[in-house]
Specification:
Strand content: 25-35%
Number of strands: 13
Shape: globular
Strand order of the largest sheet: 7-6-5-4-8-9-10-3-11
């Protein structure tokens, strides 16, 4: 995929066609995790140099352009982390290692990027497609499965476009001190079809359009809920990203072209598990607050301008 930073879109499309390639197979199904280390040319100019690099001769401007194109080449991968230059280099390396450890399910304690978390925002309106930066759209289908206890959530995900799909099995469970352990496993189409027989009938299937894009060196996913769905999900749009930023600094990184109403990370009303319940919440014994993250930092209520608490961690991907 990195080759798209150095050739035209027409040349890339021709190469894909001639070789019978498609993005889901060569990008999503081949790689478990993509990490883009942002060039020093973008955010740490004073450290950018071509000295002692005989194969590199890009100017600062050229390096920035190619760095952006290299990152954009991977837009759409389900697990894409961007490690920018908002920290010193040693911390940047630790953030990269932490991303790998998180994907592998390795507990790093408080040694690596302990403040990085997923945040979720309610979006009320979006502009026309031509206002967005380069993006990739995917169809996403979620089904919850019968779980052995209320301290566990198990779900299946089908994600793809143009009839090409990848499949994921996710197991979330509560451990001591309220910590949530999440294990994601890529599965085959056959396993996916077999596991659908174990779906929990108290949940609706969730259908989404997922739009992935980069903005301010931040990787965002915008989930647009689609019908058929429960009335509570009609018109629902949720924006998610991983970040260590809080408050005003986080607000500055959010896409300026979206109408962001408020931060809802810690609100169980926006948990996909609860959104998918067939019963009305007041009549359901399965409405779950156990997986709702606790308040750990200050976030912004962008609708009213008030400062609220509630930047935590969720896992509805």
């Amino acid at each position: 995929m990195d080759a798209t930073a150095f050739i035209s879109q027409m040349e890339w499309d021709k190469m894909m066609t001639n070789n019978g390639w498609n993005p889901v197979e060569i990008r999503d199904n081949r790689y478990n995790l993509i990490i883009h280390m942002v060039s020093a040319a973008n955010g740490a100019d004073e450290f950018y140099t071509t000295a002692d690099h005989s194969c590199r001769n890009e100017s600062l401007v050229e390096a920035r352009d190619r760095d952006l194109k290299a990152a954009q080449a991977w837009i759409g991968h389900p697990y894409f982390d961007v490690i920018d230059n908002t920290s010193d280099f040693d911390t940047k390396i630790r953030r990269m290692i932490a991303a790998v450890c998180q994907k592998l399910g390795i507990d790093t304690g408080d040694r690596l990027s302990k403040n990085s978390r997923k945040v979720k925002f309610l979006v009320s309106t979006i502009p026309q497609d031509n206002v967005f930066p380069p993006f990739q759209d995917f169809d996403v289908v979620h089904d919850y499965m019968v779980a052995p206890s209320g301290k566990m959530q198990v779900r299946l995900r089908k994600r793809g476009k143009n009839g090409r799909w990848s499949y994921t099995h996710t197991n979330r469970r509560l451990e001591f001190n309220g910590q949530t352990i999440e294990v994601k496993t890529q599965i085959s189409s056959r396993d996916y079809q077999n596991m659908l027989a174990q779906c929990d009938n108290s949940h609706n299937t969730i259908y989404k359009k997922r739009r992935c894009f980069l903005w301010n060196n931040q990787y965002f996913q915008l989930d647009i809920y689609k019908e058929p769905c429960h009335p509570r999900c009609r018109g629902l749009m949720l924006l998610e990203t991983y970040t260590t930023l809080t408050g005003e600094e986080l607000a500055k990184r959010l896409p300026s072209f979206l109408r962001v109403e408020k931060e809802v990370t810690a609100d169980p009303a926006y948990s996909m598990y609860n959104l998918s319940l067939k019963d009305e919440w007041q009549n359901s014994r399965k409405f779950n607050k156990a997986f709702t993250p606790t308040s750990t930092a200050n976030g912004c209520d962008f609708f009213s301008g008030r400062v609220t608490n509630g930047l935590g961690e969720s896992g509805d991907h």
